[in-house]
Amino acid sequence: MPEFPPDVAEADAATRGRRTTRAVVTVAFTFWTTMAGTTAPTPLYPLYGQTFGFSPFTVTVVFAVYALGVVAGLLLFGRLSDQIGRRPTLLIAAALSLSAAAIFLMAQNVAALLFARVVSGLSAALVTGAATAALTELIGPNARIRPATLALFANMGGLACGTLLAGILADLAPAPLRTPWWVIGVLALLGLLGVATIGESATRLPGFTWQVQPLHIPAEIRAGFLRSAMAAGAGFAVLGVLTAVTGLFLGALHQSSHTLTGLVVFVAFACTALGQLLVRAVRAAVALPAACLGLVVAAALIAAALATTWLLPLLIGAAVTGVATGVAIGYGVGAIVTSGAPQYRGASVSTFFAILYTMLAVPAIGVGVLIRAWSLRPAGQLFSLAVAVLAAGVLLSLLGSRRRS
To answer: What pLDDT is recorded for position 254?
Structure first.
């Protein structure tokens, strides 16, 4: 085998390093912009309601179908990137994100909004697994930046920034229901073109076979799995309701700023990322009880905000909800990865997130029904009570199991 001079070998290594860095940046950017597109409608819902003349209940349904799209994507295409490759799956996800932005841009009725949300949910389901796997393969285990950390910031950073970006554009730019989608569409297009220029990171590609991802609750950690799923699900329920009706709540406070709506949801998702980082520094025995207690406190703060019509408790409640939810997610996924059977690990993670996204959607619709029957304030207070009861129930179950053991 021929030996190359040191300077040639070093130049080749530098070239490979630059290609890898560009691929990592491209994948992370595509992940970020796809997730940003999923929360961009949040500050725009009041405007859509005024333009198309629909009720708060319709707002919650438009939001909820996104979560149903994610669940469908996880179950139907959860293994797609393992079969056809990370790059093709990322291309499909970016194309779906671009399509959703185009549908929103041209929307003339509620049906178009519903369709766009389903497409957006499918894009999120595809990009999450493919981008996380690609970053793991590109970065490797010995890099200074952990792939899971970068994936976390791309995921939660996109969810947080999408709503804030759309809110700022809706306030400052012309055509508030058009300009945000032009920007999101351009970002999605850049991600699509970027992914088209990088190579494939996966090595074994068996080819596509149609198979619904089976749900699996690991028997060896069933109790811990269900407790963490219920705690994280309670947090997701709050995140879902905040994402769906924060604009309506601020409207009741005579706050017309779309940026402020985006800021509340930004705080919630940014703190969810923070919670997932904090769980690494917290003892496992403390993590889930602390998350449950945090959710009870957050529910009380949100109920107080509804009762007093003060903005500060809402912001603090969003932050506490995010941290507690992030801790519960980190605890649950960590338990699956470290204690679950390896051959069912993928199915267990998919089941965990299918529960979470179901909890994101269903309570939001329930709150919409209550708003239509009563009004925003009693509906939100009853929802806060239900979240507090669920989190407290998980906490009592944890304490009871430890006393027995």
So the answer is: 78
Answer yes or no: are the C-beta atoms of 275 and 330 closer than 8 Å.
yes
Angstrom distance (rounded) from CA 245 to CA 119 = 21
pLDDT beneath 50, residues of the chain: 1
pLDDT for position 6:
58
- This prediction has a pTM of 0.93
pLDDT in tens, 251-285: 877 788 999 999 999 999 999 999 999 998 899 88
